[in-house]
Amino acid sequence: MSEQKLQSQTVQTTGHAWDGDLQEYNNPLPVWWVYTFYATVVFALVYWTIYPSWPLGKGWIGGVSEITYVNSEGETKTHSWNTRALLMADMNKAALAQKPYFDKIEAMSYEQIARDPEMNGFILSAGKVLFADNCAACHQAGGQGVIGFFPNLTDDDWLYGGSFEKVHETLMDGRRGYMPAFNEVLNGQQIDQLAHYVASRAGIGHDAGKAAAGDVLFRSETAACFYCHTSEATGRQDMGAPNLTDNVWLWADVPGAETGEGKVAAIRSVIAGGLNKGVMPAWAGRLTPEQIKVLTVYVHELGGGQ
Amino acid sequence: MQTGLEDQLGLYQKRIPIVTRSVTGRFRRFKTTVLALAYAIYFLLPWLPWSRLDAPAQAVLFDLPGRRFLIFGLTVYPQDVIWLALLLFIAAILLFFVTGLVGRAFCGYFCFQTLWTDFFIWIEHKIQGERPARVRLYRQPWDREKIFKIGGTHALWGVVSFWTGLTFVAYFTYAPQLVVDFFTGQAASAAYITTSILTLSTYAAAGLMREQICTYVCPYGRFQSVMYEPETLAVHYDDRRGEAAHGRAAARAGQRTLSERHEKGLGDCVDCGLCVQVCPAGIDIRDGLQYKCISCGLCIDACNTIMDSFNFPRGLIRYDSEQNLASPAPAPPKLHWKRLKIIGYGVALVLMSAYLVYSIASRGSFDRAITQIRQPLYVVLSNGDIRNRYQIRITNKAAQAQTYVISAQGIPADALDVGHFREITIKSGHSGLVQASVRLPPTVAARTPGFDLVLTPKGKPEDARKERVRFDHPGKRP
Asked: For B366-470, which CATH superfamily applies?
């Protein structure tokens, strides 16, 4: 390469000679490269002027560009440009765009919201986000819950009532489901009989003899199941006691059990162990009243309501 | 032998300014016509009024904030993106088709780089005069005349560039309002940024860079070259006729007529150099087909003018195919379209254009998207029934509000529950979201793999659209 250059005689030297014959080629940068470099210098100067760039003690040089937005309290805020203020401006802009909808929702009745196509569309979109942010951790993204832990909100079985008012009450104040552990008052045989009785009421495979004994036990003062679940075993919504005669299971994983014996065993374990984990937190104070109203309609529509 | 000079070529080659001579003829007339037509459309279209109820009265308006393109009587929504895909496909195939037939016709006659450069050269010519005057001006010192003429040219280029940029922006907002806002400082910042960028790029590309764009920047010119076939018509110099046995020669005394020249073994080319002077790419077509040639045909016009003045037959430079020129007895040039490639492109072009026209003509007055809610896929209800839920989104693309009726086929009539929205009214250009649930007893669910949801615009049963959806139940495998 260098010999070729020598041959062609087009590369000049810098003109200096060291140690007699040591010379240096002069290969200047291409012109376009130099100009591009100057352009980046100019760009940097412009950038420093407009945007925050240099640290200065504990702070920084802010640059001349500013971000102005109106926050949720209606105050106008101005910051020198930074990404956090940019996010705040975006968030407040979105909140401002949603405000007319939330204002309308505040003024409308549940029934009016459910009949208004535009509001219904807003509930489906805004409710989905609110649900995903606040509820989906337990009730899952689609509201389908987890058997044995969190109720399914998409079915037609409402533990505490499925009217708009009841759903609202649940959201505002929270709920606490409780059932005593019956292995402390009943023996294994009695629990087995109760399990077969519950299975018989729900229409799944059972032992008729045990079920008949369980039927008596269910209504007796010994077990006292009927206090909460009623003597018909259809449950009481004011106490959150589930209907035991339907196909919806929350605590006992009956649909997940492969065999009939397994289904009865699932029921038996719930009766024996009781429940003290059905806790739904109260959302009043954590969410705004309008957000809770949106969620009320959204959850009501998930399962079709009552 | 390698000298190493190859390595010395830098990344940037110094541009030798091309000063073109004006020319008259068939191709110049065609180019001027295309230029006038293209400019008329581009610069005037945003000013064409069009009466609309719910949008500015502008015939072509790309309404980005409203997420719609208004093109005369047609409103295009983002859901119609397939049309854009078809349009791009058609444009690509059209380019391939034309290039296979007549070479880089797009480059020479229709490309905006060519059009704008052509117009800028025209301005240059009007202010500074014909080629010799321009060359003189270029060489003379910076006196008042040079400053005035060169400055005037650049100023006028600047004005045209600016109006080019502003016109582009005018397609995206109501044009009369834009022009007022722009000069009073009220327009959106995007308008100023876009106009500045386009002003600068137009000025640079058409005024300063010109043929360098085609030679170094544009990929189309390069990949069109590989679509040439021996049968493709392109601008060619008839080497055998022009050079003959002893090459081209000036028309001096004793070699002025064809018979004298043929006797001496001289070619028909009188080496006047006019074909080089008129070339906007600065090439010599007599060196053969080359990648810098944008096939604008101006050298054909130039050569024909000279041939006419000497009473020689025209067509020393002409549209011809490599194959024909190489044959022992060249026939008159003609289009060779009976080739598999050309016919294939032609068929694709016709099919896709027909589909686009059909798709636009037959589009429904509304768009729908029906999705099954998959979390959960199904719900077992308290009495054992199975419920599936669906989200229905209807977008009203008609010009007025419309009521839609939602119904189902293939399931019992009472199985479908759409809340209060068995009928939903949606404003023009808006979308409506409805949640539908379908509830079937387990026995019916087991024999119902799916059903049809039917959306019918009220009063227009012929516009009804049906969509097949799944129905899932516990026993069903996905």
From this structure: Immunoglobulins (2.60.40.10)
